């Protein structure tokens, strides 16, 4: 007998998790099936809504002033500005004290590891003391074994970019880390578990040793920025203890992949899914589907160790990611959506998918399924592919998250709308 639920969400990134939570809030029984790790593990953990316009102007001060200027086909225009606001409020409730930024519509400017500032709508509290709008002088601390973050260079970039504060960077040895290839989680676990490490003054806890390494380099700065590795499970505690020992505020600078703030956000969302009673099945792909006589989706097929198991639901949400997550795939001369074969518009000639200018707008970055206002993917004749399928997140086309800085925001807003509508319809 097929497994049966009100709503089945396919994909466990920020779009799928939000869709499942929104559907559960409508009273639906929800199952989420996901295959591999989502983009969250690599993403910064920042929730960008819109940092730059479609034409590349920015950074934008207030994204809500600019959403209606986006093209009609943009996912934000499909769901409407009010839904983007509601989705952010929904996220604020789920994230609780772990995220900041809800006091204003304006973008915050968060320093990143390259010494640039990123316009973003919500940011982890661990980054809050580092905002570029804050005029306090700043010491950035990098580590010899972590070459991704060159603190002196990042500090000079921040100053050159006109940050309203003095920034200095130092590169130090991280107590207890000897290997150049130590994983980021190794740094975090040393601090989380207060592991004992050898120092010139004898054995000390990792937190105490790190503070003692940094303190002599402070020259009156009232805040200190570290790469985002200050603990995992006990990150708040680690930051508070370091701040106490240094006598200065402590913040994290978001890093490239893999990203601890992204992993913390993933943990937070999965805890919320568990609390909401969503059944999560991970490590297995949805590989196909079958329809009823009226053309609606009757069930999908989940590949469990080579066996195709039917999963049935009243409503489905497709949140399988874009070209990165494999929700959209490309072959030599076609781009396609692999589960339902939903229409993915693209030029016939592959040479038109790219432009020569590497910094130019790349058409393939906008590839994805195109939905109606209900977020139902449309076929080539602009009719819904299936009445009971909605799509959310990076599987949608019509936007370039990297150029606009809108990735998590689009996934959140469309996940919220697709899940909410699917949940409401299924529990009717
Ligand atoms: C390096 C990097 C940094 C980024 N930084 C930022 C940032 O600073 N701010 C920001 O706002 N955005 C950022 N983004 C963008 C943002 O992270 C993504 O747009 C967003 O996470 C996409 O979420 P999603 O849920 O739509 O897709 P994904 O996170 O890709 O999730 C899709 C999920 O679906 C699963 N799946 C795929 N196919 C199947 C199948 N057949 N069956 C079952 N499951 C399937 C995948 O395994 C995956 O778990 C960044 C992205 C990257 C890559």
UniProtKB/TrEMBL annotation:
Q: What class of enzyme is it?
A: oxidoreductase
Instruction: Report domain FAD-dependent oxidoreductase 2 FAD-binding positions.
Output: 6-410
Q: Does the keyword Flavoprotein apply?
A: yes
Q: Which domain of life is it from?
A: Archaea
Q: Does the keyword Transcription regulation apply?
A: no
Q: Which GO terms describe its molecular function?
A: glycerol-3-phosphate dehydrogenase (quinone) activity
Q: Which Pfam families match?
A: FAD_binding_2
Family matches, as SUPFAM superfamilies: FAD/NAD(P)-binding domain
Annotated Gene Ontology cellular component terms: glycerol-3-phosphate dehydrogenase (FAD) complex
What InterPro entries does its record include? FAD-dep_OxRdtase_2_FAD-bd (IPR003953), FAD-oxidoreductase_2 (IPR050315), FAD/NAD-bd_sf (IPR036188), G3P_DH_GlpB_su (IPR009158)
What residue stretch is flagged as signal peptide? none
Task: Report the EC code(s) recorded for this entry.
Answer: 1.1.5.3
UniProt keywords, alphabetically: Flavoprotein, FMN, Oxidoreductase
Name assigned to this protein:
Anaerobic glycerol-3-phosphate dehydrogenase subunit B
The organism named in the record is Natronococcus jeotgali DSM 18795
């Amino acid at each position: 007998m097929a497994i049966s639920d009100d709503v089945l969400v396919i994909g466990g990134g920020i779009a799928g998790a939000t869709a499942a939570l929104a559907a559960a809030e409508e009273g639906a029984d929800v199952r989420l099936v996901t295959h591999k790790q989502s983009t969250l593990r690599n993403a910064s953990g920042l929730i960008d809504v819109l940092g730059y316009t479609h034409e590349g102007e920015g950074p934008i001060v207030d994204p809500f002033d600019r959403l209606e200027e986006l093209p009609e086909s943009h996912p934000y225009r499909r769901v409407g500005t009010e839904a983007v606001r509601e989705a952010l409020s929904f996220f604020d409730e789920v994230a609780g004290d772990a995220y900041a930024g809800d006091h204003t519509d304006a973008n915050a400017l968060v320093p990143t590891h390259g010494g640039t500032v990123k316009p973003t709508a919500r940011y982890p509290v661990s980054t809050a003391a580092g905002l570029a709008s804050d005029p306090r002088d700043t010491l950035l601390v990098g580590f010899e074994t972590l070459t991704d973050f060159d603190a002196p260079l990042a500090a000079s970039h921040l100053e050159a970019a006109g940050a309203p504060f003095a920034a200095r960077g130092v590169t130090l040895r991280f107590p207890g880390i000897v290997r150049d290839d130590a994983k980021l989680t190794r740094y975090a676990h040393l601090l989380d578990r207060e592991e004992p490490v050898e120092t010139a003054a004898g054995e000390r806890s990792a937190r105490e040793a790190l503070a003692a390494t940094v303190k002599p380099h402070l020259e009156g700065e009232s805040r200190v920025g570290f790469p985002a590795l200050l603990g995992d499970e006990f990150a708040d505690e680690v930051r508070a203890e370091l701040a106490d020992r240094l006598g200065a505020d402590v913040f994290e600078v978001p890093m490239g992949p893999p990203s601890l703030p992204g992993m913390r956000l993933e943990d937070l969302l999965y805890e919320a899914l568990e609390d909401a009673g969503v059944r999560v099945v991970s490590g297995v792909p949805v590989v196909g589907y079958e329809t009823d006589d009226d053309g609606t989706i009757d069930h999908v097929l989940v590949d469990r160790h080579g066996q195709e198991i039917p999963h049935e639901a009243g409503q489905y949400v497709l949140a399988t990611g874009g070209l990165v997550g494999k929700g959209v795939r490309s072959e030599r001369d076609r781009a396609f959506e692999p589960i339902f074969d939903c229409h993915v518009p693209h030029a016939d000639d592959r040479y038109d998918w790219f432009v020569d200018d590497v910094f130019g707008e790349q058409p393939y970055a906008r590839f994805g399924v195109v939905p109606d206002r209900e977020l139902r993917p449309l076929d080539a004749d602009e009719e819904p592919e299936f009445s009971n399928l909605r799509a959310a997140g990076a599987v949608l086309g019509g936007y370039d998250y990297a150029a606009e800085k809108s990735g998590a925001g689009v996934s959140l807003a469309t996940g919220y709308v697709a899940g909410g509508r699917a949940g409401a319809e299924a529990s009717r």
